[in-house]
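Revision sheet: structure tokens.
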Amino acid sequence: YGLAPFVLPFHAMLAEASLLVALTVQHGRGAEACLPQPKLQQNVEKRLRRRVFTEPTRAQLRFSVTYEARGKETQARIDVSDADGTLRGTRTLVTSGHCSSLDDSLALSVALLVDEPPESEPAPELAPDPAPATSSGAPQPQPQPQPQRPTPRAITIPAEVAAPREPWHVAVGASFQGAWGLVPGVVPGFSLYARILPRQVVPIMLSGEAFARSTAERDEGSGARFRLLRVGLSLCPWLWRDPERSVSWCFGQKIGWLRADGFGFDHDLSERRLNYALEVGAEARQRLFSIVSLRAAFAAEVPVLRDRFVSSGRNSAELFRASPVAFAAQIGLEAALW
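Predicted:
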């Protein structure tokens, strides 16, 4: 019982101390996705393990957090002031990644400022009135300049820091391409694809490809025409990345349908065969403007299914068989949807 008079006042002091700070949060244009006030308050109080924030009329300190988008960067500025509005100090966090990459650092910064707020700036001293001029013409004392508090540098949060509220990003693109070894000769083609970037997961590429018709001749006037259509699924981890450009390497698989139509024979036949290949390659992107980027890619493929196409009859001959290693190159444009 003898400890009760001391324990209760101590808890009362903690409760009183937790009601000293008022927080306001403002979202500038382009920064609407940044952490809202209720969630920021919750994160700070979770770190400090006590109630911290109260109404402005009861607070001794005021914290103002302002989010602002500046080009490719997002800034969070924390202003600490007294109840009368006198500014005590400012801290700024900046990131070039998604706004939610500021969440943890911002909550930590506010919590540290709550525990140890900056000291109030001393009121400027008034310069003494100049003494009356003397007959000797002695110089009068000059007021001394007041020291200025240095402006703290902004704290940069790397774009690679985890951004828990960052949404999935999707980009679509179109490419012209050329391939060798998939069908006879070097054949041009066209590709449409979608690139999906889940948060904290390897980017995923879904593609559809169509190649121009190519021809393999047995002799003058007879042979076969080939047409390849296929779809692909690849994983493309980053090798290097910044807001303007990136380099990735990709590995995946392609599955499609290879059609061969004979011509110039006594009986012209048509065949449709499953086409399946494994690929590994690299791709690079360079932003051109806004959401549009230039993309180039190169890949080597190993066909798993290598059907032989031969002409029948007395002059039978092999018309085509896929190369053990094929190569493909692409160049095109990509647009980020969100």
